[in-house]
Request: fold
Amino acid sequence: MISHLPVLQVIVPLMAAPICLLLKRSQLVWLFSLFASAIAFIISVLLLQQVMTSGVISYELGGWEAPWGIEYRIDQLNAFLLLIISGVSTVVLIAAQTSIEKEIPKEKHTLFYILYLLSLTGMLGIVSTGDAFNVFVFLEISSLSAYALIALGQDRRALWASYQYLIMGTIGATFILIGIGLMYQMTGTLNMQDLSQRLPDVAQTRTVFTAFAFVIVGVCLKLALFPLHLWLPNAYTYAPSIVTAFFAATATKVAIYLLIRFTFTVFGLSFSFTTLPLQELFLLLGLTGIFVASSAAIYQKNVKHVFAYSSIAQVGYIVVGFSTSTITGLTATLLHLFNHALMKSAIFLALGAVVYRLGNVQLSSFNGLGRQMPLTMAAIVIGGLSLIGVPLTVGFVSKWYLLTALLEKGWWPVAILILLGSLLAVIYVWRIVEAAYFKKPLAGSVPVKEAPLFFLIPIWLLITANIYFGIDSRLSLKVASAAAQSLLGVSP
Amino acid sequence: MKDLFAVVMLLGIYSLLSASFFVAMDAVDVAFTEAAVGAGISTLLMLVVITITGRSEKTTRHKPLLALLVVVFTGSMLIYGTFDMPYFGIADAPIHSHVAPRYIQESMKEVGIPNIVTSVLASYRAFDTFGEVVVIFTAGIGVMALLSVGRRPEENEKTTAIDDSMHEQYLVIRIVTKMLIPFILLYALYVQFHGDFGPGGGFQAGVIFAAAIILYTMLFGLTTARKVINQSFIQFIAAAGVLLYGCVGIVSMLNGANFFDYNALASDPVAGQHLGILLIEWGVGCTVASVMIMIFFNFAERREMQQNNEKINNIEGDSL
Amino acid sequence: MIIGLYNDWVVVVLMMIGLYIVIAHGNLIKKIVGLAIFQTSVFILYISMAKVEGGSAPILAEGIKQFSNPLPHVLILTAIVVGVATTALGLALVIRINEAYGSIEEEDIQHLDNQTQDETELQATEGEQS
Reply:
């Protein structure tokens, strides 16, 4: 069975989804999806172990060898991403039953879990596959389920946000489809490994150049990189809390994975960073993104909006690390993928707990919440500190590596800008801390109790992981740097 | 153009034209699907939505200069990209010389069916097709999550009454349709089984099958159709289709081969391929047909609900 | 050389018409129509690159030597299905938006959203003052 792990990773949640439709009872479906997701997580741990000890795993679907059939190809990078996605999914699912009880009508609970599992399947599929067209298919599975999940939010603005996301997402996916088509036209193959060997021969043609541009723009639409980020804040804000916690930690990460995979593996470093001014472009967009999104976050009245904008800013940091294209920079990027997943899922889960008790997340409703929901608010504060990059949290580790990478390159003005960006994070986090701990509750507001246990367990699991990896980052660092080295073609 | 009805009809015509274009380009399977889906199902769904939302577009005053700029830029980028493309129809272009020749030369030996598109679709790239089935399933679940409403029995009786009186007018159409439907269903089965030899297969068959049911629904009313096919049965078929497809892969895995390796399904590899393709085509057909019906039912149900509400409002308005 | 690429140019023009409708039009159904045109044109791009001069449909039969490339056909079969799935979901969203907002024009919806935004903020500030 061990040799089938790569495909089982995707098949387990996939097959679980239609089974859920047959189970029908909401409680049962919840346990079953939790179980499926946990199995996916265990598989990803085993896969990571296997990859770290024995190198790249290739699995031929249907028994057809690579360029003719579809290949699953797991290297350090994929395995790391698989671990993040399935891990976050499992932890978030623990709180799901409690949270959707208040946010989604009862008869739609089963459908919610099915869509959730399908979305998980889509993301795992994108990350595992070594075939460019297969990426598109699984991208659509994850996107379609994402649109439906977001539209399940209570507010009618969720529908509008979901529609906008659908339009943007479909344009992005179609751009990727055009890019893949052009690549295929020039090389005659769809397998990524095969593409990377055949593309250099035709690298100087205008068609390949266009293909590259289309793939990158398509991925950036999905990634919500500034200035293509407009769909994200409302989608995250009005979606059901569980969905936000899941997507904030995983969806953009998958897009970043695609960006890395296409620029480094498929097109190759020399093409991606020499034929196009990609380095400067991403640096510029990343930095602008950090500042625009962070400043926007400061002025938001809805706390979910604050953290949604902060997600866009974090994408900026990730892209800046990526644009250095050095081993340290890439390590910082990958570390930040992992770390950001830890902080954002914890924060959005905690916000879900607030919604559960209060019914909304307006900043003014946070007044005095520090006393009423101490554990939840403490989690938000630690998550916020981590976003700023305070030592002893994971945020510090990735910022540290990012700064080191920038200084290695001699880009010290950028490093200063990054530090300034962190100051903006201090402001928006402080506004929440101020409301929760230093303001009196609103007159006439009913005092609330601490969040239920099913919220506190996953939140504090994530926070503990946050602090643990903030102090002892050897494990995550080892995987991230191994992945970065393999991407840049340096043998470890 | 401000009339959405015309817009949708033109889209249908565009789809049909591109389908005939696909035939001219030798892509018969694709043409079949595009005609059934683009010109058929999606046009139909759009028409249903227009009856709900109203058919005229509001005039807007702002000038879409930015949009024009984006489009011109993207377009010129693409035109720029075309300059190094291989010319149209040249036989030694890279796409015809690397991966594809094996499909053309070896598929008869390795898979054993004459339709190369089907053998690539169902065997070499079976996982893509599995993904496609899951996409359709996702869409079905998504539409259900968005649109499904709890059943309200009193309202149903009212609608039946209205429908019956209405359909008296369409007597001829109803009889002709009644005669046609068995043939459509038979044709769907033919397409399902004939996919190995000619254009067709599970997907097209599923759409045609669904079309027959939809035709029935349009003429005899949703409530009558619901009596024939109820919601939970449809859901069961949709899930069963995906599971059937996946189980073929799992069985081949249990037999010691890779996922979707049909060679392991029977002692003779080619017989195994035949069996595998037959089974997965059934999985595709079931899921596609039931999801299409499910989507249409949900759309139609919303429409009925809205019309009922309007009627009630009108009656109340009159009595005031 | 012009003749050899004309098919691509036609496709590009069609694609851009679709994309323009998506971006420029405010009506939600029209946007989805635009998406459909955009996607269908991409299908044509794929299919036209599969064509081989003198080839025939890729179904093996006696006496035929030259076939068009079957792989793009397979890919586009999948893509058509993805397209209709997106269309169906998009239309379902339009129905819900129409029910929730009473309009399917982008302008109206944005206007209504801004109003609700203002109202919630107003309530929040009132709460703070009291």
In short: Chain B touches chain A through 59 residues (CB under 8 Å).
